[in-house]
Amino acid sequence: MRVAAGAIAKKWLKERYGVAIRGYLAALGTNEIPFKSWDEVDRNPFFMANAGLVEKMEAFMDELRESGDSVGARVNVVAEGVPVGWGEPVYGRLDADIAAAMMSINAVKGVEIGAGFAAIGQKGSEHGDEMTPQGFVSNNNGGVLGGISTGQDVTVSIALKPTSSIRLPRRTIDKSGARDDGRDHRPARSLRRDPRHADRRGDARLRADGSRAAPSRAMRRRQRRPLKLEKPRKSIRVWRQHLRKREEHEQQRASCYKTRSSTRCARSTSRFRSTW
């Protein structure tokens, strides 16, 4: 749902305000990937801005997969054409809203805006974005100052943790508190961002002997249970039929109170409501 809503918001921002939002893989484990061109991002399976490193990354992932371990990654996102003045100085800060949205993504453990943690090693004379009549000289603040957009590109970096469900034995416990070594293998989360697999996390856990964990009794009951909608949507034709029946019922009810007792009329009303 969030992916679909994000795609609509991205298109709307582009058409309404001219804001273009793009991203690329900037680091995979200890391998830094220098930026080369936006044109190369969609031309490789890693979504890198440097297609010349594809063979190196493939060899790295194959070696990682054979070892049964995993690594993290860094993804950079750039919003170009952001107007001046978006955000507020205290409670509705633009950078705070962006950080909250990024941290809501699964496996994200760090967010940087602009220089981020690199600002620790910078001096004030280096980090401060100087201004000239032509605009800002640098963009260490990531396009946001005082919680408000400056008109520069808004640059954000997110850190994705290495998945802990790997093939190597790891110490853990089951729900009863007993020791249980579960194993599964996903080399990198940055290459596996498919929300369709979110409901299979529990089923993907493997025991120490390599066999898949048996589903619980409640899980087996849910698998056998047919899909049941609580309130199925009715078509327009059925809804119109209901309106006609309701009008007929109101007419019958009006005549009922003229010829019969109020108790018998109330019973007929309850029968009509129960059928709907």
What does this 3D model show about the protein?
There is one protein chain. With 276 residues, the protein is α+β, with helices and mostly antiparallel strands. It has two domains: 2-200, Chorismate synthase AroC (Chorismate synthase, AroC fold, 4-Layer Sandwich); 236-259 and 266-275. Helix content is 33%, strand content 14%. The chain has seven helices and nine strands, in the order αββαβαβαβββββααα. The strands form three sheets. A five-stranded antiparallel sheet has the order 2-1-3-9-4. α6 (236-259) packs antiparallel against α7. The longest helix is centred in the last third of the chain and has 24 residues, at 236-259. The relative contact order is 0.10. The model is unreliable at 194-213, 227-234 and 272-276 (pLDDT under 50).
Question: Tags for this entry?
Answer:
single chain, 276 residues, alpha+beta, Chorismate synthase, AroC fold, 2 domains, 9 strands, disordered C terminus
Helix and strand topology:
Layout: H1 2-17, E1 20-28, E2 31-32, H2 54-67, E3 73-80, H3 94-103, E4 108-113, H4 124-127, E5 131-132, E6 135-136, E7 144-145, E8 148-149, E9 154-160, H5 217-224, H6 236-259, H7 262-275
Antiparallel strand pairs: 1-2, 1-3, 3-9, 4-9, 5-6, 7-8
Radius of gyration: 29 Å
What composes the largest sheet? 5 strands, antiparallel
Q: Percent of residues in beta strands?
A: 5-15%
CATH level-two architecture of the largest domain: 4-Layer Sandwich
CATH topology of the largest domain: Chorismate synthase, AroC fold
Ranges with pLDDT <50 over ≥5 residues? 194-213, 227-234, 272-276
Number of helices: 7
Average of the residue pLDDT scores: 80
Helix content: 25-40%
Helix/sheet category: alpha+beta
Can you write the helix and strand succession as a string? HEEHEHEHEEEEEHHH
Number of domain modules: 2
| Terminus-to-terminus distance | 31 Å
Strands side by side in the biggest sheet? 2-1-3-9-4
Strand runs, count: 9
Shape: extended
Classified in CATH, the superfamily of the largest domain is: Chorismate synthase AroC
CATH class of the largest domain: Alpha Beta
